[in-house]
Design a protein that fits this description.
- The chain is elongated, with a radius of gyration of 20 Å.
- It has helices at about 10-25, 30-35, 40-50, 50-75, 80-95, 105-110, 120-145, 155-170, 180-195.
- The protein is mainly α.
- It has nine helices and no strands.
Length: about 200
């Protein structure tokens, strides 16, 4: 008969996220993880498997409590274009509020791990697809309401916005000046928020 776990899974996954987020997958040892999570090595292996399996569980937990939580809140806003602007506003604020400039665990993994691990690459691509799909849904809603200029094609713009998310997250690891990050986002938001009834003179 197996012994019941003596730890809270959410708490230890949060601890694992902090450890991986600070060091990355390769530089994080099982000893680092066990110490941060407050459990011994055998308990870690019994509960989560090897380090890589734990990393994938930690990524999923991070996606649920960070990315998906934000998307869910933004999609409840009545104005889809305002939701896109709010998404970026929160993204920049969260990036600058982190004193350790860790960036985004998903984006960091896309750059550091995914090129060398096909399975993790597929997982990361799926997470990025969720962000792109949020932008596309918002833009389709705006277009359906007649509130999007015809030159803004929802699928292409959603892909551009995803690229902007990655760029902001990477830039924010070295830049502490909010005006620079806002300046990266402002021209694209201006294009999205332009009123469809305004025509450029011929």
């Amino acid at each position: 008969m197996s012994r019941p776990r003596s730890f809270d899974e959410t708490d230890v996954l949060e601890a694992a996220i902090d450890c991986f987020w600070a060091r990355g997958l390769e530089a994080t040892s099982v000893r680092d993880l066990a110490g941060r999570m407050g459990i011994n090595g055998p308990s870690l292996y019994n509960a989560f498997g090897d380090k890589r399996s734990l990393f994938m569980r930690a990524l999923e937990h991070y996606a649920v409590r960070s990315m998906r939580e934000r998307i869910g809140r933004m999609e409840r806003l009545p104005d889809p274009k305002a939701a896109i602007a709010a998404f970026f506003g929160e993204l920049i604020s969260a990036s600058l509020a982190d004193p350790d400039r860790r960036g985004c665990l998903i984006v960091n993994t896309a750059l550091e791990v995914a090129p060398h691990d096909p399975e993790i690459a597929i997982l990361i691509a799926a997470y990025l697809d969720e962000i792109e799909a949020f932008f596309r849904r918002a833009l389709v809603r705006a277009a359906a309401a007649g509130d999007l200029v015809p030159s803004v094609e929802p699928t292409d713009m959603a892909r551009l916005l995803l690229g902007l998310v990655i760029a902001v997250r990477v830039m924010a690891r070295t830049v502490s000046d909010r005006s620079r990050l806002d300046g990266m986002v402002r021209p694209i938001l201006a294009l999205i928020q332009a009123r469809p009834d305004i025509r450029t003179p011929a």
